[in-house]
């Protein structure tokens, strides 16, 4: 997430630019203005380590387009910087100083100013400067903003006293939290989101004489001080200076208790006084102000006492500290009462504004000020993909979330936040966490108990960082592998998806919710309701996406059997929240045409909450209401009335809350609907134990990325490997074989973990801790030589292993036709061709979906679908070297060509490269037999089915499958593939005898 900025060399520019032309004249006694950027071409468009201007953004569409434009109305010189933008996430541009030159000293000046061509659109423009550190990418960020509420050119002056330390993001976690101004690296402009725009800017310069208060600052140790009634609040006041030098001049801090909601003389003793830090006081010196509170013993909501600070000689704290007398004695605070009674009591006390806040979720990096948590009574925050604290460590996560929870203590009823993350295959935002295989690999394991264990590891690592809520699991039934989210699915068969929903218990514990308050459990989210995996290719209207967020067109029966079935299972398993899909649903015959899921009251209120009996709460997807028809108020009304209880509005949380309140007061959303939504949210907060323990329980932090957790991920990686072909028993490898390893994905942890790893889209390379496939092979004791592009000589080797596949992507960015395809890259094809021509070879495909390999299949001795195995490449090596047998089965159909898509088990026409459920084994004792053996297995399967002996039934069908696979070999045909795939579906649905019958049909067709 690149939101940093660097400056042009002021020294260089001063040499190039006559000061007489650099902006307005200096005031009397002021130093002359120092040019920073004239935009005449003296600074190139470039990035570090060179000096230059560069753009950045949340995804490929977000960086603005910049150019230097000659304009006759330029305030200075002939050219100005112009740009256009259309930002959905975040975006802007940076001007960096060269990293190999010294930083600049701005301490002699009052501030920075520039000319801005106003569009009078009322939008806020953020401006950042960078202080200290080794270079522009390793410095502290300080921010302020101005509003574009004027037309034409205007000089914007931003005094350094207006800049505040960024609390949501720091590149290196902060340095000294003091704006020193003696080591400055540059500036950045963050442009507004939500609508297209344009801008023009000219002549950035330093102006005025420095305010002496910039050399020292006064801070308090916290913004909020919750205390029990009758105890004393201690506020620590600290003075710090630039460069940690002693104070050159005295600093005084006059304090007094201000006007809050607490009553002076009844709730606390009023207090006034002055703290003095004389000249010569050491930087970091602290004084303490103690505010005694009184005990009146009557049950009360929380009350606040602001401690007003008047600072002379230094910068004052960014906000007034608040002493909070904790709420006490009210029924909702009694943990011994049933949840429903606690909810009813709290709800009866809340205002409409407080209820609307509970229905609002903001992105932690988008809050304009942390005080907004209390100011808007926010109910929830989230970290989107890549939105992490700095440094990205478990301790930093816990500190960050505790700081947010502290803010919530300043609200009237001290309702804790519920913080959410997309931990979709482990705590994947956290560097060093255990990253599991993506769901498609978990589906390939066919191991529900292992799926539950992966969920338990994820929950443990997530909760240990203070996060109680996970936006997982994805219960989509992927019906077209061109979809960029197909790896988030357990498979193409709803029965397979349902069987893997044991992961819900891994995340949450028992279905009745009694385990949610444990320090190793989190609230799970079933997503995306419903039909996101069934969207038609070419139906998306989102940017350049081709299938994601498109239209699912199905009959009512198909909807129930394929796309709703997994959610019925999730509700039965007690899942605590559900997220609707971006996609639209077009139910054939209902006369409505395509309707966005966030607007389908018949599905959310009617099907999910009504017929399924879901009693958790519904959370929208990221900015999803913006895709609904109508103006913003209509979008809010539509989604809330459809049954969405909490809205994920990352950047527009203020607008949503205002619109929601307005719609209720206008009578277009009923108060009963609001009460239903808030009751559902509060119930889960009570079940999670957040009222009793709002802060992070880090007792489990030592287990994050631990050997025990990685052992679970390693086993999952091993069991996820699907052996598609194994001519001549090339696999498993032997330790004494000389192995030639090649391919783009053999030694790339980022490609191996895929999207949703550290960042939203993921990235190639090493960005977290783990073991690549190559490292795993070496750890296994293999005699391995590695040449990524197979350029090293190939002579003298016993076998080659070529690891190829995809690079990371997420969501519609990865749609086929949106810069992605199902073919291997030219480099991967060349590596396969060279190695497989020189020796016996095994090809491993590391990917989120099947890759088209048929034209090379005849030259490949062994083929493995490795999926996206996560951080534990040792697990892949375990099956390659026979430490574990290959046991995985295809969770999706492997097509021969893209023209066959979509292709799924149960299709009338079904002639794939490999059928659903296919998976060879390297077990030492592979069963053998013919039609007689299969007949005996059929009878035994029938007996197991009648006895409801599921484990026995599955074992019988597995034995029959292995017999059939041995008979089929590579002689795959439609006559074999269809009954084979049907058999796996029948197994998943408990029809063991019928499964063996279909396998017998496949055997006879072989």
From TrEMBL:
Keywords per UniProt: Calcium, Glycosidase, Hydrolase, Repeat, Signal
Enzyme class, UniProt record, top EC level: hydrolase
Catalysed reactions, semicolon-separated: Hydrolysis of terminal, non-reducing beta-D-glucosyl residues with release of beta-D-glucose
Record keyword Isomerase present: no
Superkingdom: Bacteria
Stored Gene3D superfamilies: 2.60.40.2030, Galactose-binding lectin, Glycoside hydrolase family 3 C-terminal domain, Glycoside hydrolase, family 3, N-terminal domain
Signal peptide stretch: 1-25
Pfam family, one: Calx-beta
Chain ranges of the Calx-beta domain: 215-293
Protein's UniProt keywords contain Repeat: yes
One of the protein's GO biological processes: cellulose catabolic process
Residue ranges occupied by any Glycoside hydrolase family 3 N-terminal domain in the UniProt entry: 352-682
Domain CBM11: start-end pairs: 34-209
EC number: 3.2.1.21
Sample GO molecular function, one term: cellulase activity
Domain Glycoside hydrolase family 3 C-terminal: 722-921
GO cellular component: membrane
Family under the similarity heading: Belongs to the glycosyl hydrolase 3 family.
Name of the featured protein: beta-glucosidase
Lineage: Bacteria, Bacillati, Actinomycetota, Actinomycetes, Kitasatosporales
């Amino acid at each position: 997430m690149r939101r940093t900025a660097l400056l042009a060399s002021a020294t260089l520019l001063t040499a190039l630019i006559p000061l007489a032309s650099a902006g307005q004249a200096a005031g009397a006694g002021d130093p002359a203005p120092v040019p920073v950027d004239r935009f005449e071409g003296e600074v190139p468009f470039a990035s570090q380590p060179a000096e230059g201007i560069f753009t950045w953004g949340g995804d490929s569409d977000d960086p603005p387009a910049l150019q230097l434009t000659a304009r006759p109305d330029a305030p200075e010189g002939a050219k100005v910087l112009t740009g256009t933008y259309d930002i959905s996430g975040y975006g802007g541009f940076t001007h960096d100083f060269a990293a190999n030159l010294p930083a600049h000293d701005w301490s002699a000046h009052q501030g920075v100013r520039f000319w801005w061509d106003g569009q009078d659109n009322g939008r806020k423009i953020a401006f950042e400067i960078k202080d200290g550190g080794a270079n522009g990418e390793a410095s502290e960020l300080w921010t302020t903003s101005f509003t574009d509420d004027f037309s034409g050119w205007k000089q914007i002056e931003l005094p350094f006293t207006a800049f505040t330390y960024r609390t949501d993001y720091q590149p290196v976690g902060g340095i000294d939290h003091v704006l020193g101004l003696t080591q400055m690296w540059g500036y950045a402009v963050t442009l507004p989101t939500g609508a297209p725009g344009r801008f023009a800017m000219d002549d950035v310069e330093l102006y005025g004489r420095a305010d002496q208060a910039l050399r020292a600052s006064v801070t308090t140790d916290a913004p909020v001080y919750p205390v029990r009634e009758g105890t004393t609040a201690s506020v620590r006041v600290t003075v710090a200076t630039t460069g940690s030098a002693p104070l050159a001049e005295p600093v005084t801090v006059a304090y007094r208790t201000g006007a809050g909601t607490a009553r002076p003389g009844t709730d606390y003793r009023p207090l006034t006084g002055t703290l003095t830090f004389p000249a010569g006081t050491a930087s970091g010196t602290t004084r303490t102000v103690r505010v005694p509170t009184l005990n009146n013993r009557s049950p009360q909501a929380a009350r606040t006492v602001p401690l007003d600070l008047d600072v002379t000689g230094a910068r004052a704290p960014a906000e007034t500290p608040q002493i909070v007398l904790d709420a006490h004695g009210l029924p909702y605070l009694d943990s011994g009462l049933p949840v429903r009674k606690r909810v009813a009591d709290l709800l009866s006390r809340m205002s409409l504004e407080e209820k609307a806040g509970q229905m609002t979720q903001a992105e932690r990096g988008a809050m304009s000020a942390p005080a907004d948590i209390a100011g808007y009574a926010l109910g929830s925050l989230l970290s989107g993909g890549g939105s992490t604290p700095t440094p990205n460590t478990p301790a930093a996560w816990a500190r960050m979330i505790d700081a947010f929870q502290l803010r919530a203590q300043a609200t009237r009823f001290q309702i804790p936040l519920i913080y959410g993350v997309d931990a979709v295959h482990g705590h994947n935002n956290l560097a060093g966490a255990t990253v599991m295989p993506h769901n498609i690999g978990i589906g390939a394991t066919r191991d529900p108990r292992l799926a539950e264990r992966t969920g338990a590891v994820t929950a443990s690592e997530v909760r240990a960082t203070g996060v109680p809520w996970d936006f997982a699991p994805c219960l989509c039934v992927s019906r077209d592998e061109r979809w960029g989210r197909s790896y988030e699915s357990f498979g193409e068969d709803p029965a397979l998806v349902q069987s893997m929903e044991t992961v819900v218990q891994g995340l949450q514990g028992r279905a009745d919710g009694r385990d949610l308050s444990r320090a190793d459990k989190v609230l799970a989210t079933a997503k995306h309701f419903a039909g996101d995996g069934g969207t038609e290719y070419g139906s998306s209207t989102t940017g350049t996406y081709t299938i994601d967020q498109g239209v699912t067109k199905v009959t009512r029966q198909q909807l129930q059997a394929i796309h709703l079935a997994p959610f019925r299972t999730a509700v039965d398993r007690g899942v605590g929240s559900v997220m609707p899909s971006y996609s639209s649903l077009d139910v054939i015959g209902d006369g409505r045409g395509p309707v966005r899921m966030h607007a389908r009251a018949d599905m959310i209120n009617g099907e999910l909450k009504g017929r399924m009996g879901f009693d958790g709460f519904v959370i929208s997807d990221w900015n999803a209401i913006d895709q609904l028809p109508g103006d913003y108020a209509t979008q809010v009304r539509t989604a809330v009335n459809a049954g969405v209880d909490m809205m994920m509005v990352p950047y527009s949380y203020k607008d949503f809350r205002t619109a929601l309140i307005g719609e209720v007061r206008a009578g277009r959303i009923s108060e009963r609907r609001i009460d239903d939504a808030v009751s559902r949210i509060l119930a889960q907060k009570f079940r999670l134990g957040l009222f009793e323990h709002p802060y992070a329980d880090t007792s489990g932090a030592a287990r994050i990325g631990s050997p025990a957790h990685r052992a679970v991920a390693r086993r999952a990686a091993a069991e996820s490997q699907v052996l598609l072909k194994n001519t001549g028993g090339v696999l498993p490898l032997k330790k004494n074989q000389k192995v030639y390893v090649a391919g783009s994905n053999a030694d790339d942890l980022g490609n191996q973990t895929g999207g949703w790893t550290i960042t939203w889209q993921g990235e190639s390379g090493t960005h977290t801790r783990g073991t690549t496939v190559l490292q795993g092979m070496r750890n296994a004791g293999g005699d391995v030589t590695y040449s990524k592009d197979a350029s090293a000589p190939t002579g003298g080797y016993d076998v080659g292993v070529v690891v190829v596949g995809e690079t990371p992507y997420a969501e519609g960015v990865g749609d086929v036709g949106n810069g992605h395809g199902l073919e291997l890259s030219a480099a991967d094809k060349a590596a396969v061709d060279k190695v497989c021509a020189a020796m016996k070879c095994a090809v491993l495909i590391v990917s989120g979906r099947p890759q088209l390999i048929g034209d090379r299949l005849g030259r490949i001795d062994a083929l493995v679908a490795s999926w996206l195995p996560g951080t534990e490449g040792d697990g892949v090596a375990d099956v390659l070297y026979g430490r574990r047998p290959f046991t995985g089965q295809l969770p999706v159909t492997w097509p021969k060509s893209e023209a066959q898509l979509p292709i799924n088990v149960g299709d009338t026409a079904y002639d794939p490269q490999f059928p659903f459920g296919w998976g060879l084994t390297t077990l030492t004792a592979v069963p053998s037999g013919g039609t007689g053996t299969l007949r005996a297995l059929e009878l035994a399967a029938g007996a197991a089915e009648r006895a409801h002996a599921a484990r026995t039934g599955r074992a019988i069908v597995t034995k029959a499958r292995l017999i059939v696979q041995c008979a089929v070999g590579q002689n795959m045909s439609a006559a074999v593939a269809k009954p084979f795939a049907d058999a796996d579906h029948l197994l998943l649905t408990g029809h063991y005898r019928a499964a063996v019958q279909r396998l017998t049909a496949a055997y006879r067709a072989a």
